[in-house]
Amino acid sequence: AVHGLLDVKKGILMMLIGGLMKKTDEGIKLRGDINVCLLGDPATAKSALLKWTSSFLPRAVFASGKTSTAAGLTASVVRDPDLDNEKLIEPGALMLSDNGVCCIDEFEMMDQKDQVAIHEAMEQQTITLSKAGIQATLNARASILAACLPRHTYYQPTQPLHKNVELSAPIMSRFDLMFVIQDVHDVTTDNRVAQHILSLHRNKKVEETTSGTHLSTIDLQRFIRLARSYKPKLDQEAHNRLIKCYKKLREDRSYVRGASGVTVRQLESLMRLSEAVARVHLSDVVKVEYVNMAFDLQVNSLRRVERENIDLNPEVVEEEGGQAPTEPQDGEAADAAAAEVAARQRKVRITYAEYQRIGQMLAAQLSRSEETGDEVTEEDLVAWYMEQVEEQIETEAMLMEQQHLVQLIINRLIDKDRVIIVYRPSEDAMKPEQRVLVKHPNFPVGEVITRQEKS
């Protein structure tokens, strides 16, 4: 019952399916479980996602960081009066969720000493107990799904990730995926969320905004059980691609997660995510395409969310052989001609929210046309958008500016964000606007548009 947040839901699905646990020749165990952290503003459905996960799995435990202690999460030694006060080990939340998921809400409320207690459980997946004469090593093979608020209640996009959260670097590096959920004020998104919430309160069936078959809870549990039975192996091409992805993470400073940057744990995380993606596709081989999907998901969670204005044409475009008017023009015609020339020569900047709004409109229109079987050229898409905003246009100069703006947005959606792809180029080289466009199959309508990395 949570609207949107498709990347977060993908991450939770990867966590539910998980990677493969391995054992080296020296007897060292390499975990296959995936840990996920949700760092978000208040009222962004973090607790709802944790509650759903804890109720979905048969072996899942829900805990609150504010009221949990180290002993409550790991294990404690107690005396049982029914057994002559003999010492017994009482399991905590991590032990009770063995082979399942431990959901910890308000993770930032935990004391530092209590957070340190789960370091071993998150990486080695064991709990070493040395209390009251009892020495034991207990299994805690559980994935951890944690939710926490930013340090100053609301996420500050101008600050790096590690300065926005009350977590230590060792804890942060143990999370395979760390999603930042911001409460962005956007008219389109706010309208969809309001419609969704009100439909829930009225007990009406919520309409699906994305195409595809809706799975029931039982069907999804059966699918996850089937996917976890696969043991995919890494082929050589995927092996080489993993190395390239890890090197890119290390070199690009925009992916920095904490003060220490990207560590080798992110390479292991990428391997686990690739195996989980292969399991989702019911494949026995981890292919390059699965590595790319896992890399995109990890990049979207690592990269700091950008909210600055967007440059649509950072380089000044100089048109060769520009046509000068042969006859003098006056009035609105002269204003339109001057506006068209000025619009194509200056840098165009647009706010992040406006870019998201227009990009979502264009993607939704292409998706609707694809469902009806209609081909859409760039010229048709621009004309459709101009019909939507015709009430806001008062002069011909504004018309030219809006046309140029939407053309620049379409180019960025094709070249950088990979939301739109060119299905068929134009047959007439003099009329490039007649190329046929379609929505990228990997972009769900309604998701936030983020810049994708090309391999």
UniProtKB/TrEMBL annotation:
GO terms under cellular component: MCM complex; nucleus
PROSITE patterns reported for this sequence: MCM_2
Localization terms from the record: Nucleus
Primary residence: nucleus
A Pfam short name: WHD_MCM6
Keyword set includes ATP-binding: yes
Domain MCM C-terminal AAA(+) ATPase: 1-197
Keywords: ATP-binding, Cell cycle, DNA replication, DNA-binding, Helicase, Hydrolase, Nucleotide-binding, Nucleus
GO annotation, biological process: double-strand break repair via break-induced replication; mitotic DNA replication
Any one GO molecular function term: single-stranded DNA binding
Family label: Belongs to the MCM family.
Name of the protein in question: MCM C-terminal AAA(+) ATPase domain-containing protein
Species in which this protein is naturally found: Noctiluca scintillans (Sea sparkle)
